[in-house]
Amino acid sequence: MTSVDTTTNAGQLLAAASGGRRRRGDRVFSRTAVVAAVTILALLAGVAIFLVLEGFPAFTHSAAELPEGKDFLDYVAPLAFGTVLAAALAALVAVPLAVAVALFITHIAPPRIALTLGYLVDLLAAIPSIIYGLWGIFVLGPAAVPVMKWLEEKLGFVPFFQGPASVTGRTMLVAGLVLAVMILPIVSAVAREAFAQTPRRLQEGAQALGATRWEMIRMTVLPFGKSSVISGAMLGLGRALGETMAVTIILSVSGAVTFNLISQANPSTIAANIALDFPESSGLAINALIATGLVLFAITLVTNMGARAIIARSNQE
Amino acid sequence: MSSSRWLVMVAFAVALALGVAACGSSSDETNGGGSSSGGEVSGEIAGAGSTAQQAAQEAWIAEFENENSGVTISYDPVGSGGGREQFMAGGVAYAGSDAALSTEEGELEKAEKRCEPGELIEVPDYISPIAIIYNLPGVEELKLDPETLAKIFAQEITSWNDPAIAKDNPGVELPETRITPVNRSDESGTTQNFTEYLSEVVPSVWKFEVSGDWPVKGGEAASGTSGVVEAVSAGEGAIGYADASQAGELSVAQIKVGSEWAEPTAEAAAKIVEESPLDKELSPGKHTIAYELDRKTESQGTYPIVLVSYLIACTKYGSASEAEAVKAYAEYVVSPEGQELAAEQAGSAPLSSALTKKVTPAVEAIEAG
């Protein structure tokens, strides 16, 4: 069994790496990589198994025994709706902004400014989500109150801005905007990498044919980076779907299923609901919360698979 | 050959994952159960339960450990339900709970069984008045009768210049502002007690269930006491409920009790507990003191919206040193000094002297040694 005697000590590893016995070095490397990959799979499977096992009782018990006296599906549906709504809102705001920022950094700004701006955008990712939450309720929320009043007055006929506008600013709109800021760095980082790698000859070729800078970007950079932007957007969406602390603090949740973004009655999100109810829950209520976690897991999985499918199709073209 | 290699890899990865899981669960056990077995002379005891008591428990523990250097106490604020559960299972030496052990789900029986051959102890150790806070510029003083209060939180009264509010506040210029009722978005004992009050005093208006999870949809919801206070401060026309000690700069409404208007003071909160009868069903033993709060009281000087939290323990423990430590700690908690400290640190209402007299013999019943 060669697989047993490859548990080499560090000395042998070094000897292997220093040449001579290159094959052995290759073997060690490839095995390490395989172990890393399998560990990831095992971890993911472990989480999934935990969610299924612990969440299972919530599916089998009757509505009367579950929290709020509702069937599990009735319990999780508004939460899933809120989760998707908040994340979609965030992606809708963040993705165009992130693409614009990435284009500015890679193709428009002078190098020094581009570098600084790149650092600053990355810095956004280093801020803990609870800080975003506090910023949301203390700064953005109150600042958004007059704006939301205005939206209610002028655009009240649109279902999104039906009102009545919240007086505290803890609305789905504000939560979505905060989430957008939170996912901006990851989306723009991925887009930036892709845009920067657009082959020079394509860009020069386009310009040689008389294209303006915008035409060059539209014809070469954007198509080249398209699949990366999509996967970046999905990464961001995944983070927004699972974001807990900021939403918990900001959103005024009262269970309503509504597209109304500016009122005080908002659907909660799965992650925020777990954070809010877990501390005082016991018994079956905990199983129900974990089962909602399983639903979130499934939503995230579907989102990612969807993204893969889109990327695969756009690569074929 | 290569497939067997894969097998080894997979087996290794699974073993790793299991190992990690095993580590996780074993450390849980030491947190929960291990410390309560406490046969050591050091006197290590663990408690768990109500988050409302957390601040008070932390203050008590710090001060108690300061004076008794050999003792280590931990309090895990897992929530009242979790605390009761852990206590019944023998995982913790004592529990803090915002509700007395119930008979419906057999909690009382299980807890008594856990304490055998000793007896169960259950005494109020933390009383906190719940204030009705509001944000209405220009209105310094606001009087609300229970019916109006219930209608506001049931979202039936939606404007501050509603005649129902105006009739109790003559001479006050009430604006037309929309009322934004603010409730807790997390599950809490404060909500539980507030909805209990509403449903007992004005059942004709308050048709919602009594629950730690706010039962009315469509209101403004914020997480934690601080979240509610922040939301009320931010929103003009907002009204909410929060532990009186946390009200800060906000105006506090007066609530009608009998023919008087009451404010959430420590004295008024302690007084209602003192005047309430014991709940016979929930206080079967010599050392169980569970109150059936007389929220409908018309007695002068009482404030009926209060949260009463209990300390649950046993008269006998597995080891003498553990019993000794629990006894000393419980006695300290209900003592005037302990109550004073909680009032200072957590803003609770100290037990009145009459209550202290009732409660002290119960915790003294713990048989040390």
Give a short overview:
With 317 residues, chain A is mostly helical. Helices cover 76% and strands 0% of the residues of chain A.
Q: What key attributes describe this structure?
A:
A: mainly alpha, MetI-like fold, 2 domains, 12 helices, disordered N terminus, B: 369 residues, alpha/beta, 9-stranded mixed sheet, 3-stranded mixed sheet
Explain this structure to me?
Chain A is mainly α. Chain A has two domains: 60 residues; 253 residues, Orthogonal Bundle (MetI-like fold). Chain A contains twelve helices and no strands. Chain A is globular, with a radius of gyration of 24 Å. Chain B is α/β, with parallel strands linked by helices and 369 residues long. Chain B is 42% helix and 17% strand. In chain B, the strands form two sheets. In chain B, strands 1, 2, 3, 4, 6, 7, 8, 9 and 12 form a nine-stranded mixed sheet that branches. A three-stranded mixed sheet of chain B has the order 5-10-11. About 6% of the residues of chain B have low confidence. The chains are: A mainly alpha (317), B alpha/beta (369). Chains A and B meet through helix 1, helix 3 and helix 6 of A and helix 1, helix 3, strand 6, strand 7 and helix 8 of B.
